[in-house]
Specification:
Length: 215
C-alpha cells in the first residue's frame, strides 16, 4: 500500500533527486530524463483515454498500458543490483509480448500504407501520434542512460545499469501507438505525406517558378 502524506519535500531544490534505490543523482541524469519522458507519455495517454470518440477496446488497452508505463518508469529509476533487499518493479518479456500481440490485433486489419502519415485527421489520432513521439524520446533517453551506465548489475562501487527490456518495451509501445493512431484515424481519413515535387504550391509566384522548372 502506497501512503503519500506530503507532496512537497524540498529535497530537490539543489538540482538533485533520489532514484528508487535512494542513491542521489542530478536531475539532468539520463535516467531521470528517461523516466520523466515516460511520465509525460503516461499523462498524454490519460488525456487520450478521456476522449469521447476513443473506441472502448482501445481505451481498455491504453488503461492497461498506463499501469505498465508506471512500472516502466519505476524500472528506469531503479539501477540494476544483485540480490536487492526487495523485489523491484521490472519490465519483463511478457509485457513486450503483450504489446506485440496488440500490434497484430489492431494492425492486421488496417489497409496497407501508400505513404508516410502526418499527425492529424482527428484530435484523438493527432494526440496518439504525440504520445508516440514522446515514447520515442523516452527510449532515446533510456539508451543515453545505457551509454552512461551499461546494462549490468552494480559491482565494485559502480552504479547499476539499465534494464534493456524497459527500452524494448518503449520501442514496441511506440509501434503500437502508431498503429492505434491509424485505427482511430480511419473514419476521418488518414493525412498522408505528399512529397515536395507533388505538393501544390499556394503562392502564385511559386506556381510560376514550379511551372518553369517542370516544363
Amino acid at each position: 500500500m502506497v501512503n503519500l502524506t506530503r507532496i512537497y519535500t524540498r529535497t530537490g531544490d539543489a538540482g538533485t533527486t533520489r532514484l528508487s534505490d535512494l542513491s542521489e543523482t542530478a536531475k539532468t541524469d539520463p535516467r531521470v530524463e528517461a523516466y520523466g519522458d515516460v511520465d509525460e507519455a503516461n499523462s498524454l495517454l490519460g488525456m487520450i483515454t478521456s476522449r469521447a470518440d476513443l473506441p472502448p477496446r482501445i481505451r481498455e488497452v491504453l488503461r492497461h498500458i498506463q499501469n505498465e508505463l508506471f512500472d516502466c518508469g519505476a524500472d528506469l529509476s531503479n539501477p540494476l543490483a544483485a540480490d536487492p533487499p526487495y523485489e523491484p518493479l521490472r519490465i519483463i518479456q511478457p509485457n513486450i509480448d503483450r504489446l506485440e500481440g496488440w500490434c497484430d490485433e489492431f494492425g492486421d486489419p488496417l489497409p496497407s500504407l501508400r505513404s508516410f502519415i502526418l499527425p492529424g485527421g482527428t484530435q484523438t489520432a493527432a494526440m496518439m501520434h504525440l504520445a508516440r513521439s514522446v515514447v520515442r524520446r523516452a527510449e532515446r533517453a533510456g539508451w543515453r542512460a545505457v551509454e552512461a551506465y551499461g546494462t549490468q548489475e552494480a559491482a565494485d562501487g559502480r552504479p547499476g545499469g539499465v534494464n534493456p527490456l524497459a527500452l524494448q518495451y518503449l520501442n514496441r509501445l511506440s509501434d503500437l501507438l502508431f498503429i492505434l493512431a491509424r485505427v482511430v484515424g480511419q473514419d476521418a481519413g488518414e493525412v498522408l505525406w505528399i512529397p515536395g515535387k507533388d505538393r501544390e504550391v499556394a503562392d502564385p509566384k511559386g506556381r510560376k517558378q514550379r511551372k518553369r522548372l517542370t516544363h
